[in-house]
């Protein structure tokens, strides 16, 4: 039998380590194996299978080259489709605070994201119009001041109403107590008359 725990390995006299071919693993050394979740719903291009948001994957992560935003690093993630094992690649997009699918899948339609984009676009157009047109800016300011005045009036009315109700409540309690005392006296007189 051979030795179970091999401490020494045999190297023949003509052994030359430089003649052994090395595997080219330059790309793999830059990548890290991590456990990640799918950041959005997507559909695989190969098998048309759905991959839902927050599904966990063992993925490879690397720093994306030639992509720069404010000097920050972007990361690229490689996963495999759980149904057909096709590779799906996405990367971070720091400018929009989201992720961008690069290949292997198609992102599903997201109504909320589209609505947010449309709202941001509308606000940008409105701000641009206000910056270019001083009359619109003046109209908007007068509308805002008018709304503020109306709100102040409503608040004042509510304060007055609350003050009236607070005093009415105390008066109401006193009147009710006096009425109860009078009713108790009447009941006592009726009982005396009966006996």
Automatic annotation (TrEMBL):
Residues 108-171 form a coiled coil. It is found in: Nucleus. Transmembrane segments: none annotated. Pfam families: Saf4_Yju2 (PF04502). One of its GO terms (biological process) is generation of catalytic spliceosome for first transesterification step. It comes from the Eukaryota. Part of the spliceosome which catalyzes two sequential transesterification reactions, first the excision of the non-coding intron from pre-mRNA and then the ligation of the coding exons to form the mature mRNA. Plays a role in stabilizing the structure of the spliceosome catalytic core and docking of the branch helix into the active site, producing 5'-exon and lariat intron-3'-intermediates. This is Splicing factor YJU2. It comes from Schistosoma mansoni.
């Amino acid at each position: 039998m051979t030795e179970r725990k091999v401490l020494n390995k045999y190297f023949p006299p003509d052994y030359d380590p430089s003649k052994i071919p090395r595997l080219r693993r330059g790309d793999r050394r830059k990548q890290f194996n991590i456990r990640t979740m799918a950041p959005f719903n997507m559909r695989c291009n190969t098998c048309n299978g759905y991959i839902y948001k927050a599904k966990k994957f063992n993925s490879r992560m690397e720093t994306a080259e030639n992509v720069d935003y404010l000097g920050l690093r972007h990361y690229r993630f490689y996963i495999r489709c759980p149904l057909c094992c096709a590779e799906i690649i996405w990367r971070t997009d720091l400018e929009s605070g989201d992720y961008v699918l690069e290949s292997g899948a198609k992102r599903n339609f997201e109504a909320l994201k589209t609505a947010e984009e449309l709202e941001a676009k509308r606000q940008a157009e409105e701000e641009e119009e206000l910056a270019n047109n001083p009359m619109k800016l003046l109209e908007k300011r007068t509308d805002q001041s008018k709304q503020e005045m109306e709100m102040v009036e409503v608040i004042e009315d509510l304060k007055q109403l609350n003050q009236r109700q607070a005093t009415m409540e105390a008066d109401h309690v006193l009147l009710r107590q006096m009425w109860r005392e009078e009713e108790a006296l009447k009941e006592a007189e009726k009982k005396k008359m009966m006996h």
